[in-house]
Amino acid sequence: MLLAKYMLDVAMDGIKNGKYVASAYALLVAFEEIVDAYSANDGKHFHEEYLADAWKYRLEWIKAHGLFETWEHLVYLCNRVVAEGRYEYVEDMLRLINDLMDIKR
Length: 105
Description:
Helices cover 77% and strands 0% of the residues. By secondary structure, it is mostly helical. It has one domain. Helix 1 runs antiparallel to helix 2. It is globular and about 40 Å long.
C-alpha cells in the first residue's frame, strides 16, 4: 500500500500545481497499486508470477472482487481529463482512490 499512498501524494501535489493530467495518470497507478496490495493478501503477486500477463490476471482479480466498475469509472474520468481538459474530474478520481484505500477487500 506504500506505493499507492506515494502515487496519491504525487496526484495531490499535481492538483496543487495545476498538473491535472499527470494527477489523473498517478491516480490510475494508485488504483493498480491498491489492487496489487489487496491481492497480495490472497497470495497473488502479478508482477512476480505473471509479468507477461499481469493485467490479464489483475483484471480477473478486479472483477472477482467487485472493483471492475470502479476501474472502468476511473478510466472514463481519466479520459475526460486528458481528452477534454475536464480537470474537475480529477477530484472525483481522488475521492474514489481515497475510498478504496479505506477498505479491506
